[in-house]
Amino acid sequence: MSGIMAAKTLADSGVTDFLILEATEKIWVRMRSQKFRGINVELGANWVEGVNGAKTNPIWELARLHNLRTFFSGWNITDNICTDKGRLPTSEAQEVCQRSAAAWEFANKIGLSRQVNNEPNISILTAERLFGHLPSKPVALEYYNYD
Length: 147
Prior knowledge:
Helix content: 40-55%
Low-confidence stretches: none
Strand content: 5-15%
Family: Belongs to the flavin monoamine oxidase family.
Order of helices and strands: HEEHEEHHH
Protein name: Amine oxidase domain-containing protein
Largest sheet: 2 strands, antiparallel
Pfam families: Amino_oxidase
GO molecular function: oxidoreductase activity
Domain Amine oxidase: 1-96
């Protein structure tokens, strides 16, 4: 989408001597879905970040300008923490988030201490294990913290 919008911007400004290169044989390859067990699953660009601040993401404005299907979603991490048995109750999810935040703070302190002492750093997972935090955190929390 960014390459095509760049080309459109150039063409609108009178520049017509350009070439669009794609990584694959398809255009907009990151904006696609695939059927999985009878449901369409989004495989690429399916949300725009930075839509609720003082400065709006220009991609959000482009999507709205071109009447693409848009809606604002206030995503709450505690509503998305699940186990193999389903979604955790809010109180348990909040506890998991608080424990993860404490483990993250502990990992940061270890990292800073090792840096000050000119020691090699350790992985976040190792620091979390030293803290006593289980390494099998829910995927949503893992994504929220690190991706």
